């Protein structure tokens, strides 16, 4: 009897040891799973405030905007800050983990998006950088064109073929870098000429005169009806310019088209006598086209925060972004709504001259 009791005690001790061991193993596994859940990559992109850079100042010791071949008046006071957004995650070679995403969800100045809302599936950081660099170059050229146009300085402008889809109407007929001279005998002065000719032609074959490798050629193609019910040439077009003097914008590691308006203001300030800002601190964002129209951009809430943190008192915002501006304006920052370069220039000039700018339009 006593022998049986001893045996049962031993068995109980063994069972208890096994339970403890199993609990320890389960605990270790739980810790491993918890660490994995926190550290494994998640398919999200975090948008946070980036640096603000004074376009009428210097970058790495050199002026950002320089003009050669024309009288210029580099600014010595005030600021016209371009604003940026920092993106992290969402790319195969740049990912964030759950902990980073969760922390950003709790940070008011950050916004978290599903990766597919920002990037195409499988796109690389290199491809994104290349696209942003090209957009920045185009933005700078558009900014120069818009600034010169606003100041009444003439320059040559053309529309050229940027790319041709393989299944487009122009495939095998037009080539990249072809400069469009006429469409159906109508001189191509801007995109609206092409759109009008295509609408009136209703899909009929037409002649397109181009400048290719220094020689003029007349080619015939038949437009196709696009998904939006409009007839298309089947090409992507880009503006090409020939300016009467050189405007150089030197800025590294900044991409995208959203600094266009601020670049244009900086160029106008450089080409006109006096201090446009009157020594005051301005910032802003917005795309620009050669005609001077200001377009919407992304991340404006973060850009306003970055502007204010860098000392800006006034922020120029595209009218098309007003819905994203309301309820996100940092304390002490006056937001001025603009739709054109002229409106932006007049607003800065008004405040820079010392006049009251409180009645300028804003986002409501």
Distance between the termini: 90 Å
The number of E-state strands comes to: 22
Overall pLDDT confidence: 89
Broad shape: globular
Broad CATH class of the largest domain = Alpha Beta
Based on helices, strands and strand pairing, what is the structural class? alpha+beta
Low-confidence stretches: 1-6
Mind describing the biggest β-sheet? 6 strands, mixed
Named CATH topology of the largest domain: Ribosomal Protein S5, domain 2
* Strand order, sheet with most strands: 8-2-6-18-21-22
Named CATH architecture of the largest domain: 2-Layer Sandwich
Q: Topology as H/E string?
A: HEEEEEEEHEHEEEHEEEEEEHEEEHEHEH
Please report which band the strand proportion falls in: under 5%, 5-15%, 15-25%, 25-35%, 35-45% or over 45%.
25-35%
What is the alpha-carbon Rg in Å?
Answer: 29 Å
- Number of self-contained structural domains: 3
How helical, in percent, are the residues? 25-40%
How many H/I helices? 8
